[in-house]
Amino acid sequence: MSTQSSVNAPDGLPIRMTVLRNSAGMDVTFMDYGATWLSARVPLADGSVRETLLGCATPQDYLHQSAYLGACVGRYANRIRNATLKRTGTTLSANTPPHQLHGGPEGFSHRRWLIVRQTPNEVVYRLHSPDGDQGYPGTIIVEVSYQLTEDNSLVIRYQAETDKLCPVALTNHAYFNLDANQGDARQHRLQLAADLYLPVSAEGIPDGPLKDVTGTGFDFRQPKTVTTDFLQDSDQQKVHGYDHAFLLTRAGDDRVPAAQLWSADQRLQLSVFTDSPVIQFYTANFLQGTPARQGRYQNHQGIALETGYLPDSPNHPEWPQPDCWLTPGEIRQSVTRYQFSARAE
Length: 345
Ligand code: BGC
Fold this sequence. Notes:
This protein has helices spanning about 60, 235-240, and strands at about 1-10, 15-20, 25-30, 35-45, 50, 70-75, 80, 85, 90, 100, 115-120, 120-130, 140-150, 155-160, 165, 170, 175, 190, 195-200, 210, 225, 245-250, 260, 270-275, 280, 305-310, 325, 330-340. The protein is an all-beta fold and about 350 residues long. The radius of gyration is 19 Å and the shape is globular.
């Protein structure tokens, strides 16, 4: 169901909200501005319903935060060094000078998307991004579909086409807190199917080769509470916590979970399945002050698990992952599934 909110987006038109429901009692909410995922309310075994996503009290508040809460991020999610595409000699718009973050100052997260299809359990948004948008070459047409399934999964399908060679990496920037947004999300347990992570500088730019997680605080191959090794090493200290890309061991295999997250009270579990090569694991190190449903968030109140490519991939063709450059005539499709499971009680 879609409704018009009384809040206008920066283009002066009202924001459109869409709610999808399944017969298990789960509902998810989106808005067309930023094709943003606003809420995911999951039924627990005792019949209560728990909010699992960080979010704001009103659509208006989303327009005044810089955490990318639940937004669809593009053209290139994550950072591009010196806002430069060396391969095409292109200069992009820098929004974290001299670098570009999450597609530039007016990236896809800051745009009105068109609803092109809708059913009770699916909504499809489309965005037309013109040649030169945020400095990127080529006109690209992007579609993102959100589908709620009967097994309490939110399936996100991305599709992109271009008329000029251009890097594309689309993600959703949801922050999860499976303890009903209560407390510090570092109390969650996390498992990540990744043998390698990419160290970055204090500016979040890759500054060395991929590193083996073995014997480091980045080893989440067995479930571990996020606090266990938090800030124990210089790679984390540079960026105030975890804010790193993990190269998935079974990249391209969307049948086994790439990540699993458990609430501190163990009542709720999230499994992330993706055919993308990478997950950016971010402990919300700069979240403080972001408008919440009540009051404001503190740092580390949510955990983002952003599927996509390694940061600055357009400038690193040597890295062992599929090519992020999209060529004319090609249709890029990717899928990420967030499955919520309540513990039987
Ligand atoms: C980045 C963080 C950044 C945040 C912005 C994350 O994807 O990895 O470094 O601060 O987005 O909200």
